[in-house]
Amino acid sequence: MLGNFDATPDAASMRFWRGRQPLDGISACYQDAWETVHTAEPGLTFTAVNPLVRAGEVATAVSRRIDYILVRSGDHGPTLQVRSCDLVLDRPVDGVWASDHFGVVADLEPPDHAPGSWGPVSAPSTTGPPPSKSTPAEK
Asked: Region Disordered: start and end of each range (predicted)?
């Protein structure tokens, strides 16, 4: 799920989507792609650096992150792996800004193993059991 949620990461709505706050006994759990890759960076998507923000209806707006890519999680973690996540359209091209918001793009991949497992399932050996080691007591 992705888009402009118009809410900061600490807002109740975003805490609900990320599984950190239930609502009427219901809980959801989505992984925030930006937070997964950039744990200590704010990832501001709406900022006064952009002249369209300064000239807009919310000209005094505080810079913040309000645009997200959220990856659904199941009982054993996210259903897709976040390989990268970056801001896009965060500078003008030939003097033109694309939007008053910066975009967010992520590379997502299916996990290399089933959720809840530790790795790919190996095929059983066809050569038989490994040789046993004898202990000094058995000699």
From this structure: 108-139
- To which residue do tokens 């890759």 refer? 37
- 10 Å CB burial of residue 65 (0-12, 13-18, 19+) is buried
Asked if residue 45 lies in contact with residue 87, where contact means CB atoms within 8 angstroms, the answer is yes
Per-10-residue mean pLDDT for the chain, 139 residues long? 94 95 92 96 91 73 91 86 96 92 96 70 54 51
Cβ proximity of 66 and 57 under 8 Å: no
The ranges assigned to domains in the chain are: 2-110
pLDDT of residue 127: 57
Contact between 42 and 104 (Cβ < 8 Å): no
Retrieve residue 29's tokens.
């759990």
pLDDT at 30: 95
**Residue 10, Cβ density class (10 Å: 0-12 exposed, 13-18 middle, ≥19 buried):** exposed
pLDDT value of residue 139: 47
Cβ atoms of residues 12 and 21 within 8 Å: yes
